[in-house]
Amino acid sequence: MKHFHKIKLSILCVGFLAILYGLAHIDQPHRKSSDETTTMAENDISKTKPVEMAEQKIMYLTFNDGPSQNTEGILDILDRYHIKATFFITGSNPEYFHLLKKVHEQGHTLALHTYSHDYETIYSDPEAYFHDLVKLENLLNDQTGVKTNIIRFLGGSSNTISDRNRNGIMQELVKDAELLGYVYYDWNAENGDSDPKLPPETLYQNALTSVQGKNTVMMVMHDGTDNANTLTALDQTLQEFVRQGWEFRVIEDANMPTFHHQRDESTSAD
Ligand SMILES: [Zn+2]
Fold this sequence. Notes:
Helix content is 49%, strand content 13%.
């Protein structure tokens, strides 16, 4: 009798375990599929979002040394592509000062390069530098009503040519400019047109090579007197940049990445 009772208990236990197992088993596919759904959804987000972010390519297209006889042609091409750029101007060509207004009216950003564009003059001491800069600021304001604190140093902030005039002057100027409320922009891409003899095809190739592997680009080109080849190469270059999916922005006061050259960074542009 006792033995029979034990068997009955065992059967009950096994039955109970079987029910528990059954319940667990029934529940499992549910949990599994919902887990899978969540995982897939999470994967989808984690897979698409960073890729989208990584694929966003932003270019700040900039021109130094204008206005000149090449500026108007550049404006026409930019207009055709609906691209806005930033122009770092000089006071070298009074006969083209009237174009500053056109640059402004077409929605581009006007910024300060240097009035004289002369290393000897502006890099002799900080006083000479800021005298030149304020002269350019006044010119811009007189021609367009635009006031700006956006600057680009002749030769970039880390140029060593200026050391010939006064050793360490760039470090002085960087510090002074920031104290006076100016914001300076170097660059991380160029088409190499500081050498005006380079043919348009080379400028085009240089520009493409220069942006490879980058997602945020400060591109320097020139619209100075000697830069006819830049104008010739521009249409083809922009066509390719647009095809590559670059989004063009102008330099603004807020939310800008910095593009500051390091002291040992060598560059050819000015
Ligand atoms: Zn320049």
